[in-house]
Amino acid sequence: MTSTSTTERVRVEAGGRSSAAPSCDALAERYAAVRQLTEQLAAPLSAEDQTVQSMPDVSPTKWHRAHVSWFFETFVLTPYLSGYTEYHPGFGYLFNSYYEAAGARYPRPARGLVSRPGVQEIARYRTHVDEHMRALLGQGIGEPAAFLVELGLHHEEQHQELLLMDIKHVLSASPLDPVYSNVSPAAPRTRPAPAKSTRWVGHPGGETAIGYGGAGFAFDNEAPRHVVRLAPFEIADRAVTCGEWLAFIDDGGYRRPELWLSDGWAVVNEQRWTSPLYWREEGTDWSVYTLAGRKPLDPDEPVCHVSLYEADAYARWAGVRLPTECEWEAVAAERPVAGRFLDPGRPHPEPQQADTFYGDVWVWTASAYLPYPGFHPWPGGVGEYNGKFMVNQHVLRGGSCATPLGHVRPTYRNFFPPGARWPFTGVRLARDVEGDPGCNVN
Question: pLDDT for 89-104, tens place per residue?
Fold first, then answer.
């Protein structure tokens, strides 16, 4: 378990933050809100829905609900609440995800084979953890424990998005195109007119500070803040739309090997990709599966559920490229964090206005997921959170329609393997401009 001394170092090494820990009352209020939202997202799902695992990368809904409870039990309650007894001695084996320091784990690809504990037992487990967390926060805690509670809340917010990603994949496997009932009916509504053409936002390049260095919470992989030198560039002010993607398909984009990275072309042929995930050709038209069921494709919506391989091929077809993560951050950091984030009633991308850098879809960058100069993972068991995955992954930025708003900031580094399509992933373009070439970092 994480000791007081090492947890105190966590707050320093994660970005040099010096702010005081949030009050226990504020933590308790935030804890209750985050936990309630997880249950709200799971509420429309049957026990059968919550048990299915449609592929190895997907986890059952009930597993997500239990795992985030295990996180609080393991890293907060056990070391900091005197006399605490774990709810079930076998739950650590079932619901540990990848923390080697916390012990052995049940194989991830087989999570859908576990019918018991069922959803009612998982609910009792969550209630048990919540009651003891209220007791702990009620008696008062110091900064080390407060940091771990805050980490656990951000961790649960990550799993709220994963829950929606995963259940969308699960439900899409049914030929009946089931509706996730938390989604509001697609009634006519007023919405801003979407941007019809791409506007390019210029950046002069030069030395730019990247990464997290302020007060408050950030993950260890967002730090330390450091200076990079960028070449002059331009970045699109919105994500690529479904209508623009249709032009790529119509021009043979999925059949032209010269557009694809070698690994990507191999995957296209092996998995027979001809369009983004959840798209279906309906005669002369297209439809897309959403959490509101299947609907006609909206050409003004940001294209969603495409891999890094597809994003890169599209950029090459368009005669431009993907932005690096430092380029995206240099521009997005000057804009407010505003856009379409998690709304349990409408978890689906919608047409974007001009100058939209956050929300709707995560955008792939050209940057491999690697440590920043001077990066150190957190000490103790939570040190396994991010650093051990810094290989064979690519960085995404900006948040999506399934990301809780409070979870997004300019420095947040999401990451997935380049072939991943089930996250809410889209595309933003960039291009070089004349000027001092500098050194394009990350």
Answer: 999 999 999 998 899 9
- Residue 271: in which H helix or E strand, if any? helix 262-271
DSSP sequence for 124-164: HHHHHHHHHHHHHHHH---HHHHHHHHHHHHHHHHHHHHHH
Confidence of residue 48 (pLDDT cuts 50, 70, 90): very high
pLDDT in tens, 345-379: 788 999 999 999 999 999 999 999 999 999 998 88
Is 441 a domain residue?
no
Strand pairing category for 293-296 and 362-368: unpaired
> Does residue 396 share a domain with residue 349?
yes
Whole-number pLDDT of residue 190: 54
Question: Is the predicted pLDDT of residue 30 greater than 60, yes or no?
Answer: yes
Percentage of the chain with pLDDT > 90?
81
The pLDDT assigned to 135 comes to 97
Query: How would you list the strands of the sheet with 362-368, edge to edge?
Result: 414-416, 394-397, 362-368, 425-426
Same domain, yes or no, for 247 and 155? no
69/51 Cα distance (integer angstroms): 17
Does 168 or 384 have the greater pLDDT score?
168
Q: Which domain holds residue 234?
A: 200-432
Q: How far apart are CA 332 and CA 405, in angstroms?
A: 15
Shared domain check, 377 and 265: yes
Count of structural domains, the chain = 2
Q: What pLDDT is stored for residue 183 in this prediction?
A: 61
Judgement on whether residues 210 and 115 belong to the same structural domain of the protein: no
- Same domain assignment for residues 398 and 300: yes
Residues 168 and 277 in one domain: no
Nearest to 323 by CA among 172, 204, 183, 442: 442
Q: What is the mean pLDDT of residues 149-161?
A: 96
Q: Which residue has the tokens 């799971």?
A: 42
Instruction: For residue 296, give the H/E element and its range.
Output: strand 293-296
CATH number at residue 48: 1.20.120
- In-domain check, residue 182: no
Same domain, 47 and 162: yes
Is 242 in the same domain as 372? yes
Separation in Å, CA 88 to CA 72, 79, 131: 14, 17, 15
Is the distance from CB of 412 to CB of 300 less than 8 angstroms?
no
Is there a domain that residue 192 lies in? no
3-class SS of residue 110? helix
Q: Evaluate whether residue 140 is within a structural domain.
A: yes
**344 pLDDT band (50/70/90 cuts)?**
confident
Beta strands 425-426; 362-368: pairing state: parallel
